[in-house]
Amino acid sequence: MSLLAAAHNLRGFATVPLRAGETVLVQLAIGFTRILMPSAVSTPAVASRYLNRRGASWPAALGTVSAAQLAQLIVTTLIVAVLSVTSGSGGMHVSPRTIALVVAAVLVVVVVLVLIARRSAVVRRALHGAATSWATLRVHARQHPGALPWASSRPPP
User: Fold this and answer.
1) Of 71, 72, 79, 22, the residue nearest 47 (C-alpha)
2) 79 to each of 30, 74, 82, 84, 155, how far by Cα in Å?
3) How many other CB atoms are there within 10 angstroms of residue 25's CB atom?
4) pLDDT tens across 69-100, in order?
5) For residue 30, which phi and psi values (nearest 5 degrees)?
6) Could you tell me if 8 and 150 are in contact, meaning their C-beta atoms sit under 8 angstroms apart?
7) Which residue from 55, 66, 53 is spatially nearest to 13, judged by alpha carbons?
8) N or C, which end of the chain is more exposed by having fewer CB within 10 Å?
């Protein structure tokens, strides 16, 4: 089941059409390479190479893998946070006020870090690259309105 979810995640962010069966096999290969090397190395290496061979440029392939992994991290973090607050024996109760304070503190830290980081030339270049990638994704979405990326009937390049 996790292979199917990982394949769906990669296909959802890809700007090139990907076959479902091949993408699941790529996820299986990624799982095998995790035996030999850390997940932070194997996933980007194999997935970006697969996307490049399917017709995506290297920057687009790396951006796709980065976006897919970021989305996976955010969703996993949210699920773990919700489960940690709602599960348990009832001995620990977290009040809504405490949750609101934690969320506000995290937002303040993020804003401060962004304001500090924007002064860095490296961060400015990275933000410019992210804005360019976002614009490319918007153009892709406009060209294929309402189309599901995984339901494409076009043959891959």
Assistant:
1) 22
2) 23, 9, 5, 8, 36
3) 14
4) 888 888 888 888 777 777 765 556 667 788 78
5) -60, -45
6) yes
7) 66
8) N
Helices (H) and strands (E) in the chain, counts: 6, 0
Instruction: With beta carbons less than 8 A apart as the criterion, state whether 14 and 153 touch.
Output: no
Residue listed under structure tokens 């790529």: 26
What is the residue-wise DSSP string for 74-104? Answer: HHHHHHHHHHHHH-S-SS----HHHHHHHHH
| Amino acid code (one letter) for 148 | L
- DSSP code at position 144: S
What Cα–Cα distance (Å) separates residue 74 from each residue in 11, 68, 111, 112?
A: 18, 10, 18, 20
Of the pLDDT bands very low, low, confident and very high (cuts 50, 70, 90), residue 157 is very low
